[in-house]
């Protein structure tokens, strides 16, 4: 692996809060957003379940941000 491909280790709780802040700024709430306590060694984040309208708003926000 080259340096460019080496994953950066980030604290899951820090990542959750950064994502929550960004989503809130976009008017999006993921109620189940949190760290995955079942596998702390993997540093996973649970995005959870959302209503269809929230998923569409998230998709639209991502599209606009990537344009």
Describe this entry's structure for a reader:
- This protein is mostly helical and 67 residues long.
- The protein is built from two helices and two strands, in the order αββα.
- Strands 1-2 form a two-stranded antiparallel sheet.
- The longest helix is centred in the C-terminal third of the chain and has 15 residues, at 52-66.
- The protein is globular.
- The model has no long low-confidence stretch (mean pLDDT 89).
Defining traits:
mainly alpha, 67 residues, 2 helices, single chain, two-stranded antiparallel ribbon
Strand content: 5-15%
| Largest sheet features | 2 strands, antiparallel
Morphology call: globular
Total beta strands: 2
Write down the overall mean pLDDT: 89
* Poorly predicted segments: none
Compressed to H and E, one letter per element, the order equals: HEEH
By secondary-structure content and strand pairing, the structural class works out as mainly alpha
User: Total number of helical segments?
Assistant: 2
Q: First CA to last CA: what distance?
A: 30 Å
Radius of gyration: 14 Å
How are strands sequenced across the largest beta sheet?
1-2
Query: Which range best describes the helical content: under 10%, 10-25%, 25-40%, 40-55%, 55-70% or over 70%?
Result: 40-55%
